[in-house]
Amino acid sequence: MHIKNIFSNKKPIISFEVFPPHKDYSIDSIYKTIDELAPLNPDYISVTYGAGGNSVGKNKTVEIASIIKNKYDIEALAHLTCIGSTKYEVNEVLKALNENNINNVLALRGDLPQDPSFKFPSRLHFRYAVDLIGEIKKQGDFCIGAACYPEGHIECESFNKDIKNLRKKVDSGADFLISQLFFDNNFFYNFRGKANAEGIKVPIQVGIMPVINSRQIRRIASLCGAHIPEKFEKIVDKYIDKSEALKDAGIAYATEQIIDLLSSGVDGIHIYTMNNPEVAKRIVSNIFSIVKALNSSIAV
Ligand code: FAD
């Protein structure tokens, strides 16, 4: 099923993100994770593609998405990045997705190389995610998601310009959006208002990352530059070397964020599970009655 159709029938929708295991870990570890996520009845599960320089992920994304869809009968969303890929390589992945009955793709540019002297080559088939969206549209009956940034994308010179670029992705065929993580919901409400004013009407799902260890905090700060509110900083400072306490506090913080977002009418929540089913289970349990109440109030 196309994810856009799930959005049409349900609000909010709840989904999870997983990533292919690092090459030092067995592929079986991800199947164990999915085994534990499946009974939580997510509306879909997404699988990242080579995120964080994980080149193993590129080979395994289709395989894992296929297991989610064809063994567990859960809708799968395959991430696909385009920077540094040829048209042939992208089309090979799309062909494999088609063959495995996966018809939802999150179209992404991917992160640029860390080298500060990096310059885009003059001839490049895919420079931005919008170029990939155009290609996916040509290659089959895919439902296409794209990324959005409530605090603005880290490279963009202005927030307003970033929103205008987002509009181009929607105009090119993005059916829904998933947000970058954030820790202060006010950024999201401001972004949603600006996006709506720019004429962006597709569903916007909120990406939430429960922070449960100190390694994650360092990565977040360096990768996406999310603003860390004082309230959150206090938690991190207090429990940084007390892993169980940090986990409890991180889950509580994410739960509070989600309840506020759900009460403000968001289209859906996408939980960055970090392949940790316990965290997903605890959050789903915390919001269970709220999601049920919201879904039962939709007139069918
Ligand atoms: P784009 O939409 O192309 O935007 C990139 C920058 O270019 C922005 O600053 C934008 O304002 C600007 N821009 C866009 N279009 C134009 C234009 N036409 N003209 C001028 N400027 C333009 N990375 C991975 O490697 N693998 C993953 O699986 C992955 N999953 C992700 C999932 C989510 C939900 C999110 C939010 C991010 C994910 N990322 C992933 C990270 C993503 O690849 C990076 O954030 C990347 O830097 C930007 O990707 P994008 O698709 O948003 O790029």
From TrEMBL:
GO terms for cellular component: cytosol. Pathway: One-carbon metabolism; tetrahydrofolate interconversion; Amino-acid biosynthesis; L-methionine biosynthesis via de novo pathway. It comes from Clostridium bovifaecis. InterPro entries: FAD-linked_oxidoreductase-like (IPR029041), Mehydrof_redctse-like (IPR003171), MTHF_reductase_bac (IPR004620). This is Methylenetetrahydrofolate reductase. PANTHER family: METHYLENETETRAHYDROFOLATE REDUCTASE, METHYLENETETRAHYDROFOLATE REDUCTASE (NADPH). GO terms for molecular function: FAD binding; methylenetetrahydrofolate reductase (NADH) activity. Belongs to the methylenetetrahydrofolate reductase family. Coiled coil: none annotated. Pfam families: MTHFR (PF02219). The lineage of its organism: Bacteria, Bacillati, Bacillota, Clostridia, Eubacteriales. Its cofactor is FAD. Keywords: Amino-acid biosynthesis, FAD, Flavoprotein, Methionine biosynthesis, NAD, Oxidoreductase.
